[in-house]
Amino acid sequence: MEKFTTHEGLVVPLDRANVDTDAIIPKQFLKSIKRSGFGPNAFDEWRYLDHGEPGMDNANRIKNPDFILNQQRYQGASILLVRSNFGCGSSREHAPWALQDFGFRAILGESFADIFFNNCFKNGLLPILLPKAEIDALFLLTQSTPGFRITVDLAAQVVRRPDGHEIPFVVDAFRKECLLNGWDDIGLTLRHAEKIRAFEVQRRIEQPWLFA
Amino acid sequence: MSKTLYDKLWENHVVHTEADGTALLYIDRHLVHEVTSPQAFEGLKLAGRKPWRVSSIVATADHNTPTDHWEKGIQDPVSRQQVETLDANIHEVGALAYFPFKDKRQGIVHVIGPEQGATLPGMTVVCGDSHTSTHGAFACLAHGIGTSEVEHVLATQCLLQKKSKAMLIKIEGKVGAGVTAKDIVLALIGKIGTAGGTGYAIEFGGSAIRALSMEGRMTVCNMAIEAGARVGFVAVDETAIEYLKGRTFSPKAADWEKATAYWRTLISDADAPFDAVVELDASEIAPQVTWGTSPEMVASIEGRVPAPEDFSDPVKREGVARALEYMGLVPHTPINQIMIDKVFIGSCTNSRIEDLRVAAAVAKGRHVAANIKLALVVPGSGLVKHQAEAEGLDKIFLAAGFEWRQPGCSMCLAMNDDRLLPGERCASTSNRNFEGRQGNGGRTHLLSPAMAVAAAIAGHFSDVRELTS
User: Which residue of B47, B81, B230 is in closest CB contact with A33?
Assistant: First the structure.
C-alpha cells in the first residue's frame, strides 16, 4: 500500500450530500478484473455529456463544463472536499480505486459511509472527518480563493489552512500506523497466525457444524 | 453484566485486539461473487498466499448473468470474462459449494446462502457486497466488505473491525393488510435517514419484526445498509430455527440439537444497554414509494412529492431540487398519479418465494396496463424459480403480462442487459434508487412486490390495499 505521511494539494469542492458509490464509479466499469485504470471514469455520468462504456477513448469524449472537476481552476486537485454521507451505497472498492487513480490523496467531509471509509484506508487514500462548521468554512474558502491549497499532516493529525488555521482530526491509531508505514494489512494479520489457528481449533470443537 | 446480541456475536469471534480496540474477527462464512473477487484472488496469487480455509467459501455468479436466452451464454464479452474468471478461481482454490452460471441452484448470493443453510445463526458472514447485511436475519454478524478485505479474509480467515455502537430498532404493533417488510424498512429509512445507522450495528426487534417470516426479516436486514449500518440483525427464535431445519448445510442429528440449544441464546438480554433506541409503530405504516434518488426520499402511497422549500437545511433543499429534476417530478404531485414505464420484481431484497407468492396473489386474474413497456419477474435463485413454477406462480405472472426470467441480480443494478433507458420510470422492488442505478438516466421508485404489481396493473402507483380489500 502507498504510504501517507503529509500531503499538500489543491482542493476541489463537491457540494452535494449523499454521493453514492454508483455515482463515483458506475456499474458498467465494474466488469474490469483489474484494480487500476478507473480514474478516467470517476464520476462518469456527471463528468461527461455522453454515456460511457468500458473501452471508450475517454480523451475524445465531451466533458460536462458545469461539473466541478472539469473546471479549469480545479485541474490537478488532489484533495476532495465533500458534504455528508459520502460514499454511501455499494461496497465496491472500485470507488476509492477510481478516486485514487484520478489523483486524489485525501477526502475531507462531514461524514462518510462506513464501508467506503474503510475501503479508502486499504488504498492509501485518507478520508478525514471534520466538524460541519470547519467543512462549511472550507467550502467558502475554496470557492472564494482560486488555487486554494491545504496541507494534510497525518502524523500530527491536523489539516492546515494557508492562513495558518489548524483543524485537528481523529484517526484510529492502528489505521494511522498502517498508513504512515504503508503496511500491508494481511502481512500484519498473519503475525497472529498461531492465534487464529488456536481459535479455529477451539471453534471446531465447540461448533463443529460450522466446519462442515 | 447483561449483553446485547451484538456483544455476544462480537465476543464470540474476537481472535485478537489491538491497543486501539481494532479487533481481528474470525470469519465463518465467506460468500463470493464475480464482480468484487477477481482482484482479491489475483492479489493473493501475486503475494504467493493460499486461501486459509476454502470450506468457508460459497460462491456463485449473479451480478453479470443474463436472465433470458441462457442457451446463448453470456453475450457481453467483458461480463463473460468476469464470470469465467470466477470459474477459474474457484476451480483452482476450491469451495464448500459453487453454483456457476446455469446451475439449477445458482442465484443471488444473498438468496442462496440462507436457502442452502450455509448461513447459520451465530456466524460471521462476509461478502464483497454491501447487501450482506441480509444474513443478519439469522442472528449473524454479516458484513459487506471491499475487495481488499475479501483478499484479507481469503488469506487470514479474519476481518479487521472496530466495534460499532449498538442500536435497537423496535417496531411494535401489527401492520395493516397489504403492508409488508419492505414498507416497514422504507418507512424506517424515511424516519432515520440514509446515515441514521452510520457507526451502529442495528438489532431489529419488537412484535412486528417477530411476526415476520424469515423472508420478511431478510428484506428488513438487507436494507440496514441503506440506513447506513453495515450490519443489521434479528434475534433467533423458533421461526429462524424452523426455517433452517433440513437445509443442505444445516447441522444434522446430534449437532442439530447442540446447535439449536446454542442458537436460542442468541438474543439480547432483557436489560441489555443500547447506545440508541428508535421506536416505530407498525400500525401507522402505509405502503411506501420512494420519489427521489436516495432511499430516504420516501412517502406513503397516500402522500405527495415534496417541494424543496419544505426543507430548511440548504444542502438538503438543494439535494431535493436536484433529485426532483433528475426524477422528472413536479412538487406536490400525488404519488398515486405518477405514471410508470417498467416494473421490476426481483433483487436480493425481494425475490424470495414469499415475495413471489404475494406478488402473484395480486396479479392473479388481472393484467398489466397498456402503458407498461416491460414488467419483469426475476426469481432470486434457481430453486426459488423451481418452487414458484411448482406452485403455478409463473403461469399467473405470464397470464398477467409479466415476463418470467432466469435468476440473478438483473435490473437491480443493470450490469446485464436488463436496464432502463434514459428517462424511463420504473417501479422496482430493489434497494437503491440512485441516479443511473438501473440504467443511465433511468428513474427508480422503490416499493414492495405487492405494490409493484399494483403499479403494473394500474400503469401508475396505486394503493394495493384498494385492490385486495
Answer: B81
